[in-house]
Each structure stands twice: as structure tokens, then as C-alpha cells.
Amino acid sequence: MLEPGNNSELPAIPGKRYFTIGEVSDLCGVKPHVLRYWEQEFPQLKPVKRRGNRRYYQRQDVLIIRQIRSLLYQEGFTIGGARQKLTGEESRTDLARSQQIIRQLRTELEEIAKVLRR
Questions:
Q1: CATH number of the domain enclosing 87
Q2: Domain range holding 108?
Q3: Structural domain contains residue 1
Q4: Which among 42, 89, 102, 118 would be 20 to 30 A from 96, CA to CA?
Q5: CA distances from 48 to 56, 78, 105, 107 (A)
Q6: Could you report the per-residue pLDDT of 57-71, keeping only the tens digit for each?
């Protein structure tokens, strides 16, 4: 198993659509029971569950797990602090997207207004 501070030494994520919990464990350097615990603590982490309650993680889930691992093991965050940081980053991303959409709409409306004035 990888040491907590070696996030840069994690293997590359293969180009698959779904990963089992064992594969994600190997890709992220954490044990499966830790992944199951993090699912309870981080609402962003929701693997697909199929027959027999088997978990199938997508690439986005693997990236979130690596980010959680980095926050907890490298940066020294607590579970609660890491949860808040991830939630805050989502909020900032959503805000930036919303502002970009508003700017685009405003530009389009100004162009329409110019056409209508002619």
C-alpha cells in the first residue's frame, strides 16, 4: 500500500467506464473499508450500486476519492474540514458557471436589442 503522502505516485486511471471497489482501492491507495466509510461521510461520493449491492465507481468518483485522500493525508484536514472544502469548491464552480451564463445571455440580449432598434 502507498504511504499517505505519495499521491503523485498513484497509478494512472485506465480508460474504463466503471471500476470495482478493489480496482479503486488499488488506484487510490486506500483500503476498501475506507472507501465505504468515505461514501457515508462525503455526499459527493455516490458509486453506482448493482446486483448484490456491488459498487461500481466511475472516473469522476476516482478523481473525488483522490482529492479526498489528498485533503486528509497530505494537507491534514479532518473529515469535516475536507467535506466543507469540497462543498465550498463545488459552490465556487457553480457560481462561476452561473456568472458565465449570465454574461453570455446579457451579450445575446444586447445584440437582439440592437437588431430590434434598426
A1: 1.10.1660.10
A2: 7-117
A3: no
A4: 42
A5: 5, 26, 36, 40
A6: 999 999 999 999 999
